[in-house]
Amino acid sequence: GAGVSQSPSNKVTEKGKDVELRCDPISGHTALYWYRQSLGQGLEFLIYFQGNSAPDKSGLPSDRFSAERTGGSVSTLTIQRTQQEDSAVYLCASSLGGTGGSGELFFGEGSRLTVL
Amino acid sequence: AQSVSQHNHHVILSEAASLELGCNYSYGGTVNLFWYVQYPGQHLQLLLKYFSGDPLVKGIKGFEAEFIKSKFSFNLRKPSVQWSDTAEYFCAVRGGSYIPTFGRGTSLIVHP
After folding, report:
1. Which of A10, A29, A116, B18 could join A94 in a cystine, given CB atoms 3.0 to 4.6 angstroms apart?
2. Would the CB atoms of B49 and A110 count as touching at under 8 Å?
3. Going by DSSP bridges, is the β-strand pair A10-13/A111-115 parallel, antiparallel, or unpaired?
4. pLDDT tens digits, one per residue of B80-99
5. How far is B111 from B95, CA to CA, in rounded Å?
6. What's the CA gap between B92 and A55, in Å, rounded?
């Protein structure tokens, strides 16, 4: 499809396990964002990729969180040694990025992570 | 650093009532402002945005928002809500970086 695609849509894991969440942005969008949405907490910024520049990792809550973006397209968010407080919906968004575009973010459906 | 405050976390209205959702931001420079909406079971999508020019911005589905620089506000309004407006509404600000900061969201329930 033409939208932002995320997988898996739902993930249940045990505390201490590692998880990988995938995001496939809209073709041609150079900017990619990861946010986390917890109940009643709004959207918490995690990490931002823009083209080939070094990512802005200022929102990652701990060193258990990491993300990469291969070939300027697909991104993977990895959470190591998951904790119960990591339970949330992880949202990916893309945009045209930089000084171009309208600034509008296009969001995926999200990956709901539940850590038991 | 930029921040966003949405004052109303839960709003319940009857159809045809008027709506105003508050949004205040904190940032000293030029800002871009957004309202996003998340309908039940759907992904977040843009409702309207302000970049420059006319501070009264009109969006989809009859929504509008007014940027008041002196009050650091960007309140969302609709004169007559419909049941289909039931959704979660998020205000966002983008200041010195390309990273928008979102508010906590307002849950709107419209009774038919």
Report:
1. A29
2. no
3. parallel
4. 999 999 999 999 999 877 89
5. 36
6. 21
Averaged over A18-28, what is the pLDDT?
96
Structure tokens at B108: 């709107």
Position A65 confidence tier, pLDDT thresholds 50, 70, 90: very high
Distance from CA of A82 to the nearest CA of B (A): 24
Q: Do A33 and B45 touch (CB under 8 A)?
A: no
* d(C-alpha A116, C-alpha A100), whole Å: 42
At residue A99 the predicted structure's pLDDT band, cuts being 50, 70 and 90, is low
Residue B85 phi/psi, 5-degree rounding, is -85, -5
Segments of chain B scoring below 70 in pLDDT: none
Is the Cβ pair A107, B98 closer than 8 Å?
no
Q: How many CB pairs under 8 A join A and B?
A: 52
Which of these, B67, B38, B63, B36, lies nearest to B50 by C-alpha position? B67
Q: Determine how β-strand B106-111 pairs with β-strand B10-14.
A: parallel
Question: Which of B23, B37, B98 best tests the A interface by mutation, with the highest count of A CBs <10 A?
Answer: B98
Contact A114, A48 (CB under 8 A): no
Cβ–Cβ contact B49 with A under 8 A: yes
Verify whether the Cβ–Cβ distance B104 to A41 is below 8 Å: yes
